[in-house]
Design goal:
alpha+beta; elongated; 3 helices
Amino acid sequence: MHGIRILLFLVGGLLAGFAIHMFTKTVEDAETTDDSTLRNASPDAAAGASTVIETPEQGAVTRGPVDLLGSLSLGEVAGVLDANEAELLLCYRTTLSTSPDLSGAATMNLIVGRNGSVGSAFLVGSTLGDQSLEECLTDVADEWRFPAATSGVTRLLIPYVFTAT
């Protein structure tokens, strides 16, 4: 069992690095648009869609395509992520109050139990360089609640890009 966990961690790290690399173009495109309103991907389009949360205040959090392994649907996962991303933005804005130029990317790895609770939340591949922000992000994700799964656990890799505005 320990060997499987190590293998999942290594694969997760590789996927996280790839997701951050592939997501850069999407973020550049999002930054050049004139739309400064909240844009949410529909749950049905969550696999290939991005969500940008931004307001006239400061800071934006952009979520890339979710990598999902388990019995939860992308729609179920997207619904929970959409409902809770304001918490991630609050973590980021709190950090921006003392580090106004901080930006970067991080991929969150979530292990969701069959009952829908988050059993493990950690970052794989972060360029943020701010331990307090990274801890805040994983602390809030630990409290998220997903629908109960039909079988086993669900593993999520969720790339985020944090941009100071």
